[in-house]
Prior knowledge:
NAD(P)-bd_dom_sf, globular
Amino acid sequence: xxxxxxxxxxxxxxxxxxxxxxxxxxxxxxxxxxxxxxxxxxxxxxxxxxxxxxxxxxxxxxxxxxxxxxxxxxxxxxxxxxxxxxxxxxxxxxxxxxxxxxxxxxxxxxxxxxxxxxxxxxxxxxxxxxxxxxxxxxxxxxxxxxxxxxxxxxxxxxxxxxxxxxxxxxxxxxxxxxxxxxxxxxxxxxxxxxxxxxxxxxxxxxxxxxxxxxxxxxxxxxxxxxxxxxxxxxxxxxxxxxxxxxxxxxxxxxxxxxxxxxxxxxxxxxxxxxxxxxxxxxxxxxx
Length: 287
């Protein structure tokens, strides 16, 4: 049985839906913190069990009978995040899973300027020392994050953020399909190549695309790191999180997210969705 964690989250839920196109529902189980939110999956024949990375006993129950487990990375950061992942890896191993998959990042590195990349690297080390076959899906930076950085620039006409660099923005649906294929067809062993779209683009490029799609000018405005952090804090973002978010810009300036790789397109059998595709869909949906 294939077990998917975080199956009510954005990436996890998409992965489950795509898996159902590849395998029978009775061969699929999900581990979720709130089973009530996954009743629609149970109605389709998917096994739904409560599992929490903070509770190893709950994972033993949720992972029972697993042949493969997909660990969708937590939304925490720092050592707390890595410990949650270690707990899940240990639970998958004890459940007898022959393969563990993890949603990592193409920028995974112990020396990254962006803290979550350090967490991904530490989790990959735990996978490598687990003694179980593994796949670390090194996903491109989510295009959804680019839309968040774009924020209300479509109405204000200004995309204000610190100096950045090109990023290989990649869409959730494509990464979910890749995860489903990796599970159902047992593709991509070990540390995967970067699962990225076909171009790396900076915020100035995103502003230009937004201008073209809307017919209204969107100007890229560079602000200092300190000013950006202070603005985040003034809007209620905790100081530690604001400092962490600044790391996205520091890392992209160093080219940490600029690499592109053909593997995702080869896996999908088509071109991955571009920033333009995702932004256009978002604009159309808002009309």
